[in-house]
Design a protein that fits this description.
By secondary structure, the protein is mainly beta. The protein contains six helices and 52 strands. The strands form five sheets. The chain has a 27-stranded mixed β-barrel. Strands 1, 2, 3, 4, 5, 6, 7, 8, 9, 10, 11, 12, 13 and 14 form a 14-stranded antiparallel beta sheet that branches. A hairpin with a 2-residue loop joins strand 20 and strand 21. The relative contact order is 0.06. The protein is globular, with a radius of gyration of 37 Å.
């Protein structure tokens, strides 16, 4: 036996040995063949001491022993290499690091010299995977395990978890783990096999599974069963969805999901996804032949007469080149209640106060200073209160926006904007003044009447509005704008501008059929081709006064004035208004050249917009801003004083020569807290016509709380159908009890709901007195603070587990003037790397809004 330490000691290098690491090529240093592997790979050893035993043909490394073979590294207190058998024996704090970063630890390992095959005592394996900007770590452990060719590891009586061990008590069981008689991890197929396994929660067995397999965290696409989903409702019965994922190729797959329902049979679903070099598309089909259609309400409140029900959904995104892209998002259903009845989720469906699916196809191009977009829309109402004949088909909608530098003679910027919109509607959509006084149908279910499809009691101007005109209409608009800014030596900023806009209309109203023929009684509507020209010249003036007070911050006072000169708007009230019905006059729109939200209306007349704002920035990050202003009609016809078919502009605060005052106040003491208030004040007596105020705050790290509270008030607008004022509060908060436990909630309080109920009762009482049939209506006051919607819940989240429990009380706008509630309890459990499960249960009394006939 010969010690390397003795050789070095004789050379006077003993002191260097105690701190140095000696690399040795075992195979080549002694003239024996290198371990089998890739050509040129060597087994390199680093240790404080190396011992060669020529009699036994072994080499022993002691003290911080570290062996390298290719991409693998073995570390231990003591390692013995048997050159005759090609076996490596490691003892004491053994740690094997794989090429992919995975770590295998144990008390004793017996391996081949390439570290691929062997046995391990007190085996522990840790594997890390980066996924969605998150590091996921999984851990295996067993009293004894076996490695085979570096591709498969077998754990006898092993455990598996993605949870970190407890720092204070590492001997405690993790939050969850799977214990199995045998666990096999195949790194080649990226699959984990469990035999005779049990899922434990906090060390307590909860689920026994004789056999199952799952992909390891490095595998994102693998054929097999996905997490089941359980369903329980009165209409559907009890059931389970069993999704099966088929990995057809690296770039396309198929998911087949049969859902077995005790009351309705089998719901079949299939989703195909395909990713190409320049985009992707997906197709999802759903269908069922119902065994108990009577579980749903009859038409027009439900699909109780249908045996077969289904849907088709498709989405696509394609990038033609770096500037152009195209795509679609399509939803088609046999009936409006299907997706909700069968709990089929789609991101294109809105579900706040109404249900609607929007199908669209588009082509978009974007240049350095230009934008092109062409779209088509199909709107599908998904509640009982939507009349599909009133929903328009809008196609095409084409927008083009181009900016260029103006010729040097005039300077500044030139902008071209164009829009073409075409739509078709089968039935005119009316709104009575006031709202909720007349309906087309009033079907009765279990003695309760449900008025559907709002209309007008009196078809006359002043008593009825047209929100959507039946027939076909197309509008083409083009506008050229020039503007240039000048800043003088005193800091005054003067921006002259000019624009020329032209609109061409082709209107072919449908004035035949049920109630379509009553539209001429409400308004005089142009038929055929007509046009409109609107030239504008104006100037924008701003003069900021800036003062720096050092530690007290930078203060800015900025008076702002605009003057716009143009002729009066023409064709008001004789053309449809489809895209400009939303008009809110506040601080954000005060200095808009055209305050209408769409192209169907255009602001005319000579007008000046006046205001000023004050702001302050401090070195500590404190910020405040205040603004106040008014808009004045100087000459010509005030566009906002002449209501169109939908009365847009009336009671907006702009319909007088001197508009209402608008203002804003914003305060941010730091980047985590923001207060903001905006208001509109009546010009005559300064009473509040519109008021919004709220705060958003994030108090961490001092208090683990994030919250927002907003209050809104809008005065009555009888000419728009709002017979009384509207007032409400919305609030939300999330509080972290500990780094892992949290509670959250949100609430919407309707402070004027009692007025809706009172008006409904008044109308019902008037009808009863005129025709006293049935029971006399009773008035039930819902109270001043009516909870129109709410969500409360909490949960637990850590590196391996997410559990949330939420109660959702979502309002549904109904034709009766009240809001029925869809109450849902949702439990979601996710065990990272294994899957997730959702349990959704509707509670309370069923409503007719979802087409279901009985309580759930």
């Amino acid at each position: 036996m010969r010690k390397v330490a003795d050789i070095l000691r004789s050379a006077g290098l003993t002191a260097a040995l105690t701190v140095a690491v000696l690399p040795v090529s075992i195979g080549h240093a002694q003239g024996v063949p290198a371990p089998p592997g890739k050509p040129g790979e060597k087994l390199l050893v680093e240790a404080n001491e190396l011992i060669y035993d020529n009699d036994r043909n072994t080499v022993t490394a002691r003290g911080n022993a570290e062996l390298h073979y290719g991409p693998r590294t073995l570390q231990a207190d003591r390692v013995r290499y048997d050159r005759g058998t090609g076996r490596v024996f490691a003892e004491g704090n053994v740690r094997l690091t794989e090429a992919d970063g995975g770590v295998v630890t144990g008390e004793r390992m017996e391996l081949t010299d390439d570290f691929k095959t062997g046995f391990v005592d007190s085996l522990r394996v840790q594997q890390s995977v980066e996924r969605k900007n998150e590091t996921i770590r999984v851990r295996f452990s067993a009293p004894r395990g076996e490695r085979v060719n570096g591709e498969q590891t077998s754990f006898e009586y092993g455990s598996y978890t993605a949870c970190e061990p407890c720092k204070d008590a590492p001997e405690k069981p993790p939050l969850w783990q799977i214990r199995a008689q045998k666990i096999i991890h195949n790194n080649e197929t990226h699959t984990i096999y469990f035999e005779e396994s049990t899922l434990e929660i906090a060390g307590i067995p909860v689920v026994y599974l004789p056999y199952f397999e799952a992909p390891d965290p490095s595998e994102r696409r693998k054929t097999g069963l996905l997490t089941p989903r359980f369903i329980s409702t009165t209409a559907l019965g009890r059931g389970v969805s069993l999704p099966y994922f088929v990995n057809l190729a690296p770039n396309y797959d198929l998911t087949i999901t049969p859902t077995i329902l005790s009351r309705q049979g089998v719901l079949g679903q299939a989703e195909f996804r395909h990713r190409l070099d320049n985009g992707f598309y997906s197709l999802r089909l759903s269908g069922i032949s119902q065994t108990t259609p009577s579980a749903f309400l009859p038409s027009p409140l439900g699909a109780g007469e249908r045996d077969f029900r289904g849907s088709i959904e498709s989405q696509g995104r394609f990038y033609i080149n770096e500037r152009w892209r195209t795509g679609w998002d399509v939803v088609g259903v046999t009936d409006k209640w299907f997706l909700d009845n069968y709990r089929i989720r789609n991101q294109s469906i809105t579900t706040d106060f109404f249900r609607e699916a929007v199908s669209t196809a588009y082509l978009i191009g974007q240049g350095d200073r230009s934008w092109f977009e062409a779209r088509g829309y199909y709107f599908k109402g998904l509640s009982s209160f939507d009349w599909q004949k009133q929903q328009p088909i809008v196609a095409p909608v084409i927008d083009y926006d181009k900016r260029i530098n103006a010729p040097s003679e005039i300077g500044g910027e030139l902008r071209l904007q164009t829009n073409i919109t075409s739509l078709d509607r089968e039935t005119t959509q009316y709104q009575g003044l006031p709202r909720t006084t007349a309906y087309l149908f009033s079907p009765s279910i279990n003695g309760i009447s449900f008025p559907l499809y709002q209309t007008c009691a009196v078809f006359a101007r002043g008593s009825c509005l047209i929100q959507g005109l039946a027939g076909y209409n197309t509008r083409a608009s083009a506008q050229v704008t020039w503007r240039r800014s000048f800043i003088d030596d005193y800091g005054q900023k003067i921006t002259p501008f000019a624009s020329l806009r032209g609109d061409a209309f082709f209107v072919n109203p449908n004035l035949s059929g049920y109630q379509n023929d009553l539209a001429p009684s409400v308004a005089r509507i142009d038929d055929g081709v007509s046009g409109r020209i609107m030239p504008t010249v104006g100037v924008d003036y701003r003069y900021p006064f800036v003062a720096n007070f050092g530690g007290f911050g930078v203060h800015t006072i900025e008076p702002i004035g605009q003057l716009l000169v143009r002729p009066s708007e023409t064709k008001v009230g004789r053309l449809p208004n489809e895209d400009a019905q939303s008009l809110v006059f506040d601080d954000t729109s005060l200095f808009e050249w055209d305050k209408f939200s769409g192209y169907d209306r255009v602001e005319g007349g000579v007008r000046t917009n006046l205001g000023a704002q004050y702001s302050i920035f401090t070195p500590s990050g404190w910020y405040a801003n205040a603004m106040f202003g008014e808009s004045i009609q100087l000459a010509g016809v005030n566009s906002f004083r002449r209501g169109d078919l939908a009365n847009t502009g009336l009671e907006s605060g702009l319909d007088k020569r001197l508009s209402d005052y608008v203002g804003r106040f914003q305060l941010s003491p730091n980047q985590n807290i923001t207060f903001i208030s905006r208001a509109r004040f009546n010009q005559a007596d300064f009473h509040v016509s519109r008021f919004e105020t709220g705060v958003t705050a994030r108090f961490s790290p001092f208090v683990p709380l994030t919250t927002s509270v907003f209050y809104s008030y809008y005065e009555a607008q009888p000419l728009l159908g709002y017979s009384h004022y509207r007032e409400g509060v919305t609030a939300s908060a999330t509080y972290s009890i500990t780094p892992n436990w949290f509670v959250s909630g949100s609430v919407l309080l309707d402070l004027t709901h009692y007025l809706d109920v009172r008006n409904t009762y008044t109308d019902a009482l008037a009808g009863y007195l005129a025709n006293p049939v049935g029971a006399r209506p009773l008035y039930e006051n819902p109270g001043r603070f009516y909870m129109a919607g709410a969500s409360f819940g909490g949960g637990y989240q850590d590196e391996c587990t997410t559990v949330t429990l939420n109660y959702i009380n979502s309002p549904i706008a109904t034709a009766t003037g009240v809001r029925e509630r869809n109450q849902t309890v949702l439990l979601r459990i996710e065990l990272k790397t294994l899957g997730e499960a959702d349990l959704r249960q509707n509670v309370g009394v069923a409503t007719t809004a979802d087409g279901i006939a009985s309580a759930r």
